[in-house]
């Protein structure tokens, strides 16, 4: 296996074949999340769109690798892998922490793209709150995760599960909470912001502020639900993506 192939397979997961797809959609998970979170979206979009989900170190098949607690370093690594997608327009979709990471990856792509950035469940990079979840007790971190109601949150009463996921959440919260954007850096691509109407982590003003991070057009789509609204709206999001990217639905 070549060095470039090894890099690609380390960081990117393709759950559905899409050999003839004109567009590659690179999906970046939330804090504590993994590539498999995007399996339903890949199933809904393939083969019209080539969906590739980023697998962060420290989880699932990369569980023996050390976590990365710097959003900048993580963006560097992901951008190197995304650069191997020659010949296809690249679109980025990130949820929560993944939205910030997608923004930083997009900046690193420069003139090569992306063609569009979809930022889900995350306030604009220039909007900060005094969150310190990475410094809180295990009990408080778990309570926060339960309140968000993410995938698998019903399993968090199991001590074995707790021991597996707590280091991931604490690592990823540290990466997000210590992140600061470059106020000079601005994208050129269109940005679509998606949020749940009951998501307490993103206010209307914080969502609208994404418009200041691109010279291109921007819009906001609000769907019913909380922070993990997208788990209940896979087909609706797939339709939105196909529409924004001018990709027809397959029969």
TrEMBL record:
GO terms for molecular function: hydrolase activity. SUPFAM superfamilies: alpha/beta-Hydrolases. Keywords: Hydrolase. PANTHER family: S-ACYL FATTY ACID SYNTHASE THIOESTERASE, MEDIUM CHAIN, THIOESTERASE. Signal peptide: none annotated. Residues 26-245 form the Thioesterase TesA-like domain. One of its GO terms (biological process) is lipid biosynthetic process. Gene3D superfamilies: alpha/beta hydrolase. InterPro entries: AB_hydrolase_fold, TEII, TesA-like, Thioesterase. This is Alpha/beta fold hydrolase. It comes from Amycolatopsis iheyensis. It comes from the Bacteria. Belongs to the thioesterase family.
